[in-house]
Write a structure and sequence with these properties.
Length: 139
């Protein structure tokens, strides 16, 4: 539909925004669910929320790359656009947060729920992207 430089640049913008867009949705909605159950977080709660998410990201990354000193080199790859819609990954992240927030309250709910939500998001995103690649390769 869009042609020329603008069309190419728009496709590039959408392509490189997929992961950050999905993780932003997952983090923002997880925080919203927690606020609904626990109220406005203190600065310490917010720091603990961040620490839980960073710890989960580091854990999944370390497992995926085989260690913390591994180098990440983004390789050019093609994938079906629908693999970046994030219905499963963000939905699972929200669902995990809602379930846990219903039962967990207080200070340690913040890091634990962001930890679980981040793991759920990353693992489900891996499934979504793999499905998009597999289906694209089989056509």
């Amino acid at each position: 539909m869009f042609r020329g430089y603008y069309g190419r640049n728009l496709r590039t913008a959408i392509g490189v925004s997929g992961g950050p867009y999905g993780y932003t949705l997952a983090t923002w909605t997880t925080g919203s669910v927690l606020i609904n159950y626990n109220g406005i977080p203190s600065t310490l709660d917010a720091l603990m929320f961040m620490a839980g998410a960073v710890t989960a990201f580091a854990l999944v990354g370390t497992i995926a790359f085989g260690g913390v000193s591994a180098r990440f080199k983004e390789e050019p790859r093609e994938s079906a656009l629908w693999g970046n819609f994030h219905f499963l990954s963000v939905g699972l992240s929200i669902g995990a947060a809602a379930l846990l927030a219903h039962y967990l309250h207080g200070r340690f709910a913040w890091p634990l729920i962001s930890f679980v939500s981040t793991i759920a998001y990353l693992l489900a995103l891996g499934v979504e992207l793999t499905a998009a690649d597999e289906r694209d390769l089989n056509q």
